[in-house]
Structures are given as C-alpha cells and as structure tokens.
UniProtKB/TrEMBL annotation:
TM stretches of this protein: 25-43, 244-264
Keywords, in A-Z order: Membrane, Transmembrane, Transmembrane helix
Name used for this protein in its record: Uncharacterized protein
Transmembrane keyword on record: yes
Length: 267
C-alpha cells in the first residue's frame, strides 16, 4: 500500500506540471494510458493464472516410489550424512555448504536514463560437491545438492553479511570499483528434514534424484516440508503481483487526474 500511495502522489505531481497542456492533448494522453493499463492488466492476469497453475502442478507431483523410475517426483526425508565440513566464513559445522562473495558498486545509468544504479559481480564461489543421502519413509535416495544449486531452486540455511573489505584476494595491480562485498553462506546439517523435487533415476542399483533440465519441472532442494516450497513460489508470485498493482495505481491516478483537469478547464 505504501508504494501504491507513493505512485499516486508522483502521478499527481506530474499532472500539476502538465496542467497547461492543450485539453485535446491531455485527453489523448489519458486515453492512451488507459489502453496501456488494460493491456498490461490482461498480460498480468494471464501470467498470474499460469503461475498459480505451476504451483498447483508442484502440489500434485507424485511422491517418491520405486515404480516412478525416470519420472519427476518429490521426496521428503532426513539427511543422514554426518557434519564433517565447516563453512568457510562463519566456521559452522555442516554436511554441505555454498560460499559466495560478490562485489557491489554504484554505476551511472546510460542516457537517456538518469541517476545511479547498483551493480553486483560474483568474485568467488566455493561449493562442496559430495552426495547427500536422504532417508525417506520407504527407502534411501541420494542427491547432489550442488547440481540443484546451479540448475534450480535451493532453500538452505543462509547467512549473509556486507563489509567494506574483500574476504578473498582480488587480482593484484588492478583498481576495482567495489564499494561493498556481500558474503553469502548456505548450508545444511545432519538430520535436517528436506524436500526434493527431481527426476528419479537408478544408477547401478542406487536410487538418485537428479536435477531435471526442463523449465516446467524445476529442480528444487529445500530444508523443510513441501509446504515450504509451495510458500516460496507463492510469495514470489504475490510480490510480482503487488509490484504490478502499485505501478498500475500510479498510471490510473495520472490518467484520472489529467482527465479531471481537462474537465475543469472546460467548465
């Protein structure tokens, strides 16, 4: 609601500066904006419906079972790997970690845009690569979390901080534009309950969950129950929908204000 209110205020300010335009011009601008809003509303409604169908599809993905070989399935179980690793930055014990350092800097926007924009570049990445063993209700299945991290969605325990100095060496003899460094650690532990969406394959008598290479079948590795995954995707859909709503509110307010001013000029 706060962003929608801000968009409306900006729209009213723009109307004030454009109040001296010819009434025909303001009417044409308002009409064009109304048509544009109707167009993007149609697109967003269709996208929202498709996103909801995608979430419903995940809810109906079959559970892991030996009869589902080479199929896209979901599994819930506990990690049985011991915590033999240590995260590089915080030193936490774990059985898997992904460590990333990003450099952040401000960059002047290219014309005709104005102002500055924040850019990031990944400078360093370290990921443990051992297979995870998941004890499900009916049998044990293995999974390479690193593959899911690269190709899909991974919802792990996450620690992130920002600092002025780089925790890893930068190329010597070269100046860099970085103002801040974002350090991110993701990890999981022994006995964590996890949910995995992947393709069930049999490799020499051992069952594995592989990361599928299909857009409609996302590779997902998440700490928690399936509801954690559904909520994650639902929040993404809702956030995008709210962003669209406050933009649309600003455009509609601008159009209505222009038309209102036009009517007042005719009185």
């Amino acid at each position: 609601m706060g962003k929608a209110f801000t968009a409306c205020v900006v729209a009213l300010v723009l109307t004030f500066y454009l109040r001296n335009l010819d009434s025909v011009v303001t009417g044409m601008i308002a009409l064009a904006l109304f048509i544009y809003v109707l167009f993007i509303v149609t697109i967003e409604i269709n996208r929202y419906q498709k996103d909801k169908l995608a979430i419903d599809y995940l809810r109906n993905v079959p559970w892991l079972d030996e009869s589902k070989g080479d199929c896209y399935v979901k599994a819930t179980g506990k990690l049985i790997n011991p915590d033999t690793l240590t995260t590089p930055q915080s030193g936490k014990r774990c059985n898997f970690f992904a460590f990333t350092v990003q450099g952040e800097w401000e960059h002047k926007r290219k014309k005709p845009q104005k102002g500055m924009e924040t850019l990031r570049k990944t400078l360093h990445t370290v990921t443990s690569d051992q297979d995870m063993e998941i004890q499900c209700s009916n049998f044990t299945v293995s999974c390479n979390v690193a593959a899911f991290l690269k190709q899909g969605v991974s919802l792990l325990k996450k620690d992130q901080k920002t600092q002025r100095s780089s925790p890893v060496p930068l190329p010597p003899g070269k100046s860099h534009p970085y103002r801040r460094f974002i350090i991110t650690e993701k990890h999981c532990n022994h006995a964590d309950e996890v949910t995995v969406f992947g393709r069930l394959v049999n490799n020499q008598g051992r069952w594995r969950l592989a990361a599928p290479h299909r857009e409609q079948q996302p590779a997902i590795f998440a700490i928690g129950k399936p509801k954690t995954v559904y909520n994650f995707f639902q929040h993404k859909v809702d956030d995008r929908y709210r962003l669209f709503l406050w933009k649309a509110a600003g455009i509609v307010t601008f159009s209505v204000a222009l038309l209102g001013w036009n009517v007042m000029l005719q009185l």
